[in-house]
């Protein structure tokens, strides 16, 4: 701990952090301190951080307890299946083992989703003409903390962009009626209002089939269907610098 003696109006500067501490006034045993810090450096009273940590710790313990119970249940099912096999109860063993594998798979997906969940809400515009695909992917993304709006084709997406706040990322199918992916990308990249807007191609077509540039003049990433939606969330977070 660094201990310094300072008079009122004198400051202590931490140049690497961009933080300045100033003694504003001293009255009896009360010292008023001012702290200047960049937006990226939160400043809280110690008792608030302790309270926050207690809440976070309690939530973490509760979640860990729940996961351990589910893992324990699945493990018991595996042991039961082994006993059933030894007893010649093949059908019962198969049913028990199937249930155990289903639980292990669910736990695996749940943990993978937790790792891929972004640190803040991502705003995405999903552009897909297949209504079933659009609904399924949109719901998956919402469950992973992504705020999703949908458009049925490129023209619908361009109309949306003109009348709404721009999203963080556009998830764009390439082969659509009325206004396809390449045409939509070209229109977006011509408009300076959309500079820096991330565009991810999500298409059954390969990049070379669509004649679309990569990078800031075209699409930032290309995901060929079938898409791993958890991987898509993870890549959005990485590209946007949220993980």
Quick recap of the structure?
The protein contains 7 helices and 8 strands; from the N terminus they run E-E-E-H-H-E-H-E-H-E-H-E-H-E-H.
Write out the strand line-up for the largest beta sheet, numbering strands in chain order. 5-4-6-7-8
Report the count of strand segments: 8
Write the CATH homologous superfamily of the largest domain.
Response regulator
CATH topology of the largest domain: Rossmann fold
List the domain count as a whole number.
Answer: 3
Radius of gyration: 27 Å
Characterization of the model:
The protein has 243 residues and is α/β, with parallel strands linked by helices. The protein has 3 domains: 8-43, no CATH class; 46-116; 122-239, Rossmann fold (3-Layer(aba) Sandwich), CATH 3.40.50. Helix content is 48%, strand content 19%. It has 7 helices and 8 strands; from the N terminus they run E-E-E-H-H-E-H-E-H-E-H-E-H-E-H. It has helices at residues 46-86, 90-116, 131-143, 154-163, 181-190, 207-210, 229-239; strands at residues 11-14, 19-27, 30-36, 122-127, 146-151, 169-172, 198-203, 221-224. A 5-stranded parallel β-sheet has the order 5-4-6-7-8. It has a 3-stranded antiparallel β-sheet with strand order 1-2-3, with no helix packed on it. Helix 6 links the parallel strand 7 (198-203) and strand 8 (221-224). It is flat and about 85 Å long.
């Amino acid at each position: 701990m660094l201990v310094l003696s300072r008079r009122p109006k004198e400051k202590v500067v931490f140049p690497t952090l961009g933080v300045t501490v100033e003694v504003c006034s001293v009255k009896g045993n009360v010292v008023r301190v001012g702290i200047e810090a960049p937006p990226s450096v939160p400043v809280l009273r110690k008792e608030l951080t302790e309270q926050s940590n207690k809440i976070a710790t309690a939530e973490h313990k509760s979640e860990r307890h729940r996961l351990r119970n589910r893992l324990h249940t699945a493990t018991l099912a595996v042991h039961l299946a082994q006993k059933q096999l030894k007893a010649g109860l093949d059908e019962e063993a198969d049913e028990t083992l199937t249930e155990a594998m289903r639980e292990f798979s669910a736990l695996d997906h749940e943990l993978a989703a937790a790792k891929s969940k972004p640190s803040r809400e991502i705003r995405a515009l999903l552009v897909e003409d297949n209504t079933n695909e659009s609904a399924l992917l949109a719901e998956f993304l919402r469950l992973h903390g992504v705020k999703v709006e949908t458009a049925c084709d490129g023209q619908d997406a361009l109309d949306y962009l003109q009348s709404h706040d721009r999203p963080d990322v556009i998830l764009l199918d390439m082969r659509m009626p009325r206004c396809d992916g390449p045409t939509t990308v070209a229109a977006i990249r011509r408009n300076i209002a959309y500079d820096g807007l991330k565009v991810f191609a999500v298409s059954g077509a390969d990049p070379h089939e669509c004649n679309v540039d990569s990078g800031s003049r075209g699409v930032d990433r290309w995901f060929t269907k079938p898409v791993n939606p958890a991987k898509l969330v993870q890549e959005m977070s990485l590209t946007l610098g949220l993980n």
